[in-house]
Amino acid sequence: MRRVSIADLKAHLIEYVDAAKAGEEIIVTDRQKPVARLGPVGAPLCRDAHITGLIRAGLARPAVRTLSREFWERSRPRDREARALAGLIAERTEG
Questions:
Q1: 90 pLDDT tier (thresholds 50, 70, 90)
Q2: pTM given for the model
Q3: Which of 12, 21, 45, 81 lies at 20 to 30 Å from 55 by C-alpha?
C-alpha cells in the first residue's frame, strides 16, 4: 500500500488511477496524515486486478495452462512428522 500526498496525487493522477485499477490501494495524505483511500471498485474485478498487480510486481507468474483433472486426483504426500502443521502454528504465533 502506497502513501501519496495530495500534491503528488494531483500531479500524477493517471498513474495512481492505473495502480488502483490493477488492485493496489493508495493512501492519500494531507500534511503526513491519511485523509483518503484510492482503490479498486468491485469484488470480481478486484481479485483479477490483485493478481495482475502481483504479476506486475514480480511476485507471481501468469498461468501457462490449466491443471489437468489427473493432477487433482493424485495422492497427497504424507507429512508423518507434521512439519507443515508445526510451521503454520509457528507462523501464526509470530503474527
A1: very high
A2: 0.44
A3: 12
